[in-house]
């Protein structure tokens, strides 16, 4: 830490070139980023751990240093997310293709993914299907209910590990889960965003916090950048369920699409891999191939 930088904190919101940082005592400071970051092509993000100089008198403070990030997302622009909770529920019907896409995004960024099956008090079969679908995918599946409290203690323990966020279809109960687990009210965050953003600007990301939890209230995740710069052959590396069969295919490299002698296709045919999960992989592979083909357009 520099001599002039008296405090450490975490950026909880950024609006109009101003950054709001919470220090270790819980006080929020209004800061601007020093010009050196622009020269370095670095933009402070919500979730960034920083060294900063607090305000003096009527002047705002300054972001002096951005500490190394453990993860970084572009849309929404957030840093240092430790875990992402992918939420499905009996209603609306689970979109497993979206879950697979978000799972690839998380692994590509080094974020620990978890699958939450909410509203399991309404229908236990969805949790059973999810556990079967992702049994070999290296992702913990947790059946939860904000109504009955099932699985909530385990969810809280996971959430305490670091900055986390929730993603999934509208209506699966993400805000309700966060409120039940932490006491935070995502609607409060939404109101504050509406006040600060004006009528014609996009909603901002905000890091909500208690003494135990740090949860990102985000407007959603754009998956467009997922395919940017990704060679199609890279996609399979984000599928731990394929790992036991890698190197056993007749041809190399093998996309596990339709190649003869493919060990992954053989495993699926023998019931060792989920046929529907493999089918969804083929859909995502097609997207990756199209994006790669059109990368210079």
General description of the model:
Helices cover 28% and strands 22% of the residues. The protein has helices spanning 35-39, 96-108, 125-133, 152-159, 174-182, 186-197, 263-269, 275-293, and strands at 7-15, 18-23, 28-33, 49-53, 61-66, 72-73, 78-79, 83-88, 112-117, 140-143, 164-168, 206-209, 214-217. The strands form three sheets. A six-stranded mixed β-sheet has the order 10-9-8-11-13-12, with helices on both faces. Strand 1 and strand 2 form a beta hairpin. It has eight helices and 13 strands. It has 297 residues and is of the alpha/beta class. The longest helix is centred in the C-terminal third of the chain and has 19 residues, at 275-293.
Mean pLDDT: 88
- Highest CATH level, the class of the largest domain: Alpha Beta
N-to-C SSE series? EEEHEEEEEHEHEHEHHEEHH
Terminal Cα span: 44 Å
Radius of gyration: 21 Å
What is the overall number of helices? Answer: 8
Shape: globular
Q: What's the total number of strands?
A: 13
Oligomer status: single chain
Give the DSSP E fraction (strand runs of 2 or more residues). 15-25%
- Spell out the CATH superfamily of the largest domain: P-loop containing nucleotide triphosphate hydrolases
Number of domains: 3
Helix content: 25-40%
Q: Would you spell out the secondary-structure blueprint of this structure?
A:
Elements: E1 7-15, E2 18-23, E3 28-33, H1 35-39, E4 49-53, E5 61-66, E6 72-73, E7 78-79, E8 83-88, H2 96-108, E9 112-117, H3 125-133, E10 140-143, H4 152-159, E11 164-168, H5 174-182, H6 186-197, E12 206-209, E13 214-217, H7 263-269, H8 275-293
Parallel strand pairs: 3-5, 8-9, 8-11, 9-10, 11-13
Antiparallel strand pairs: 1-2, 1-4, 2-3, 4-5, 6-7, 12-13
